[in-house]
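User: C-alpha cells in, sequence out, please.
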C-alpha cells in the first residue's frame, strides 16, 4: 500500500503521521485519496512524509493542494515532514511551495 500510518500517530493527541512510499501520479491518486479521506475525520493534525516518493505529476500536486484545502476548511493542520527531490522540484515549479508547512515536525 502506498499510504502508511507511521509510528507516533496518536488519536489522543490528534496527530496522524502518514507516509506515502509510492508514486504520486494519476495512476495512484484514487487509492491515495481514499486512504487520506479515511483519516481526515479522526485526527486534527497531519504530518505527511513524502521522502520516498520517486515520481509525482500534476495529479499528485493537485491531491496535496486539495488535502490542504480540505484540512484548512475543517480547521486542521498539515505539515510535510519530508520531501523527496522530485516532490520538492515539482511543487517549486508550480509555485506552491509556500502553501505547505514543511520542515521538522515538533
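Assistant: Sequence out:
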Amino acid at each position: 500500500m502506498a499510504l502508511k500510518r507511521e509510528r507516533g500517530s496518536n488519536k489522543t493527541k490528534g496527530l496522524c503521521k502518514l507516509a506515502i512510499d509510492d508514486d504520486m501520479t494519476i495512476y495512484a491518486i484514487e487509492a491515495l485519496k481514499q486512504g487520506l479521506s479515511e483519516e481526515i475525520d479522526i485526527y486534527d493534525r497531519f504530518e505527511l512524509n513524502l521522502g520516498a516518493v520517486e515520481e509525482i505529476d500534476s495529479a499528485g500536486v493537485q491531491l496535496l493542494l486539495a488535502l490542504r484545502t480540505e484540512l484548512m476548511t475543517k480547521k486542521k493542520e498539515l505539515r510535510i515532514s519530508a520531501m523527496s527531490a522530485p516532490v520538492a522540484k515539482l511543487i517549486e515549479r508550480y509555485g506552491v511551495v509556500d502553501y505547505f508547512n514543511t520542515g521538522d515536525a515538533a
